[in-house]
Design a protein that fits this description.
This protein is mainly α. It has 5 helices and no strands. α3 runs antiparallel to α4. The longest helix has 13 residues.
């Protein structure tokens, strides 16, 4: 799956984010609003990832689908 698919199907995909990254709140998911950059920023904040690790984690998550 590509990030474009996530954006287009945001209402469906958003619940998968909270399953994968349980530190994300409902408010965080609202803030992300389909934007990959927002997700990566929050992963850095909550999980202490550096920018490359956050990007890698999102890429890995996308490959699952």
């Amino acid at each position: 799956m590509s990030w474009n698919n996530v954006e287009q199907n945001w209402n469906t995909e958003r619940s998968k984010l909270k399953v994968e990254w349980d530190k994300l709140t409902d408010n965080d998911v609202e803030v992300i609003d389909g934007r990959r950059s927002q997700l990566e920023t929050l992963l850095q904040k909550y999980h202490g990832y550096d920018p490359l690790k956050a990007r890698s984690e999102v890429d890995t998550w996308l490959r699952q689908f």
